[in-house]
Amino acid sequence: MRLVLVGGGGFRVPQVVEALGAADAAVRVDEVHLHDVSPARLGVMRAVLDQLCATLPHPPRVSAGTDLDAALRGADFVFSAMRIGGTAGRVLDERVALDLGVLGQETVGPGGLSYALRTLPHARHLAERVRAVAPEAWVISFTNPAGMITEAMRAVLGERVVGICDTPIGLVRKAVRALGADGRPVDFDYAGTNHLGWLRSVRVDGVERLPDLLADDAALASVEEARLLGPDWVRAVGALPNEYLYYYSFPREATARLRSAAQTRGQQLDVQQGDFYARAAEDPGRALATWREVHADREATYMAESRASEGGGRRAEDVEGGGYQRVAVDLMAAVATGRPATMVLDVPAGGVLPGLPEDAVVEVPCTVDGDGVHPHAVAPLVGDMLGLVQQVKASEQLLLEASARRSRELAWRAFAAHPLVDSVAVARQLLDGYRERIPEVGRALD
């Protein structure tokens, strides 16, 4: 089996290879091909992986190159993990918004819209080349912002592209652990869009247990998302929110913390990862050790601005559970082997989640097997949950149309429609700022 990783020079590539080469990996891959536009980053990642594979029970063969069509030929699966504009682009996604007093975050709000504008043309191009060169391949996309990117690629590839994110299933695992139900039969209900969803039911051995969890102070305190948003608010909502709902629930507080910080998250990662690639290139013999050091720090400081009351750090249990690479490998294994697996995936809303356009990509539980992806029936979103999801999705679909038509007016409307942008005038300033400071955004609309 041949797996192509687009964005193969990216920092998180070793996590995927480590998951594939583990003794308990759900599927074996013969070759992992790394595709990237940067030969230098590919060289560093090859050094890391050469050392990593020497430690793995079942290491795949690793190859690398910069020719996309050559990479795709013979692919069974394609993982899309591209980051157009790199971490420097993320810095500006955040900073342009913060300078205007608006929340600046990688995937949420105007920063996510900017990220999508510069990424969508490349995502569509990838989908077109897969259709031309490897039409039988499955594309698993964890390119952010995942919902919009998956929606655009589905217009080209249909059901053979699936978006993934590790935060929903990670939330389920934390809830199950808090209930002391590890290893027992569990069903759950989760619904929303990427980085905007709620865990609304957890049934253990057929018995609903979410109310028990919400009523138990100690158990609820062990769930990272409940600590982020506060137990009183979680109980008021009656569901466990995805951690990114912090930005929608506390935008004033989040923006104030981000603006007062010495560095944004993007700036931290830009410095951190720039230092990693430089150090690993200078001393390739320690490439893996250097990567492990930097990766541990990255995980420990994830969403630190939302954890001010906890000193900005994460508990050890918060970073357990496998991450997005586990979701990707489990998905690939279910399709390749036919052994069913349940996970939360980005799929069309049609027939699954009422109140949204049928082609709108949403996140819901799905069963995956050799015949593909089968979304579960979930309870409809209602009230404020539905209203928020509809407003964000309307903004996203305006942006998708703006990108396809290269329309500045539609892009302005997309920014203005987002619930975290409180002024049409500010929406115009945001769009103009991104176009002026990020060349890829300007080219996407010119």
What is the compact description of this entry?
With 446 residues, the chain is α/β, with parallel strands linked by helices. Helices cover 52% and strands 15% of the residues. Among the domains are: 2-163, Rossmann fold; 252-310, no CATH class.
What would your notes on this structure say?
GO terms for molecular function: 6-phospho-beta-glucosidase activity. Keywords: Glycosidase, Hydrolase, Manganese, Metal-binding, NAD. It comes from Pseudokineococcus basanitobsidens. With 446 residues, the protein is an alpha/beta fold. Among the domains are: 162 residues, Rossmann fold, CATH 3.40.50.720; 59 residues, no CATH class. It is 52% helix and 15% strand. The chain has 20 helices and 13 strands. The strands form 2 sheets. It has a 9-stranded mixed beta sheet with strand order 3-2-1-4-5-6-11-12-13, sandwiched between helices. Strands 7, 8, 9 and 10 form a 4-stranded antiparallel beta sheet that branches. Helix 1 links the parallel strand 1 and strand 2. Helix 17 packs antiparallel against helix 18. It is globular and about 50 Å long.
What fraction of the residues are assigned to beta strands by DSSP? Answer: 15-25%
Supply the helix-strand structural class. Answer: alpha/beta
Q: CATH homologous superfamily of the domain at 2-163?
A: NAD(P)-binding Rossmann-like Domain
Oligomer: single chain
User: Taking strands numbered 1, 2, ... along the chain, how are they ordered across the largest sheet?
Assistant: 3-2-1-4-5-6-11-12-13
**What do the pLDDT scores average to?**
94
Q: How many helices does DSSP assign? A: 20
What is the CATH topology assignment of the domain at 2-163?
A: Rossmann fold
